[in-house]
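Bumping my old thread because nobody answered last time. Still need a sequence for this structure:
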């Protein structure tokens, strides 16, 4: 299993506290960087790909709504 996400916006993050590194290979990158995303997908060759990118901090979506919609 592999995850692909931006760095967590808080310290400590729930991601770090949960420590999923043992079961998930994680890539820290921006899904909007199409070349890097395509490279990561080709390298991993997934059978199934789920797009779950979303703004996890609601207040941030109010501050920057255009960025909020850019991953939909």
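Sorry it took so long. Here it is:
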């Amino acid at each position: 299993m592999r995850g692909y996400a931006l760095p967590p916006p808080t310290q400590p993050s729930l991601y770090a506290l949960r420590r999923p590194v043992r079961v998930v290979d994680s890539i820290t990158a921006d899904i909007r960087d199409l070349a890097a995303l395509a490279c990561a997908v080709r390298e991993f060759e997934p059978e199934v790909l789920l797009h779950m990118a979303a703004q996890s901090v609601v207040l941030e979506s109010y501050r920057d709504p255009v960025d909020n919609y850019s991953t939909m």
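The helical segments are 14-18, 34-44, 58-63, 65-69. Let me know if any region looks off to you.
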